[in-house]
Design brief:
Blueprint: H1 22-55, H2 58-72, H3 74-83, H4 86-116, H5 124-152, H6 155-182, H7 188-212
Length: 214
């Protein structure tokens, strides 16, 4: 899934008369979008954490690590919109890319560790439920961020929206892990964790291209 090219920002007038300055409206709209997506992803990650403690699935661990990282990207984006600075938005975009990359590294290390020290997930219905929660939360966050990013012509927000949309499909890997373990393919859980890591790395590259305008 390719992330769209970097959108052009509209020129903001230096001042306004008798109305709210467009840059202030843009700032408020941006902060509202990132705050709402933060609430959605943060709540999902917290629920997934509880479910991970029950299932001990490395595929779920990779997904929830990434969801926590994705939620955290709302912080630099909110700061950038509060500052009403295009430069700050560009820097926030780089933080988004860095957060995605770090989550991929952590997920990859955990998956490799589980291959070396095998452990079979339990509570498979709960594991599948956790994947469904991750999918729904990321899909909703993607809609919020992408719509706002296009309206506000914010490359960082567009990149984060595409990132969340791809993450929705990544969360389906958790459901696949539960299904594979249920039919006796115990090694599928860490292998799916590695596959999720590979997808996250691809998302990192696509987000980098969007933020840099490639």
């Amino acid at each position: 899934m390719e992330i769209s090219a970097k959108p052009k920002r509209p020129a903001h007038p230096a001042h306004s008369h008798g109305r709210v300055d467009p840059s202030i409206r843009r700032s408020r709209a941006g902060i509202r979008a990132v705050a709402l997506s933060l609430a959605v992803l943060g709540a999902a990650a917290l629920v997934q954490t509880v479910l991970f403690l029950l299932t001990d699935s490395v595929a779920l661990l990779a997904d929830l690590i990434h969801n926590f990282g994705d939620a955290a990207t709302a912080i630099p984006l909110a700061i950038a919109f509060a500052l009403r600075s295009e430069r700050a938005e560009d820097v926030a975009g780089l933080f988004v890319v860095a957060a995605i990359f770090v989550s991929a590294c952590v997920a990859g290390v955990e998956a490799i560790s589980r291959l070396i020290h095998p452990s079979t997930p339990s509570h498979l219905v709960v594991l599948a439920l956790a994947g469904a929660i991750g999918f729904a939360a990321n899909w909703l966050a993607a809609q919020i961020r992408t719509r706002a990013g296009r309206v506000l012509s914010s490359p960082a927000l567009v990149a984060d929206g595409a990132h969340a949309r791809a993450d929705a499909y990544v969360s389906l890997g958790v459901i696949a892990s539960a299904a594979c373990v249920a039919i006796g393919l115990r090694i599928a859980d860490p292998l799916i964790g590695l596959a999720i890591t590979a997808v996250i790395l691809r998302i990192t590259w696509q987000s980098w291209r969007t933020v840099r305008g490639g």
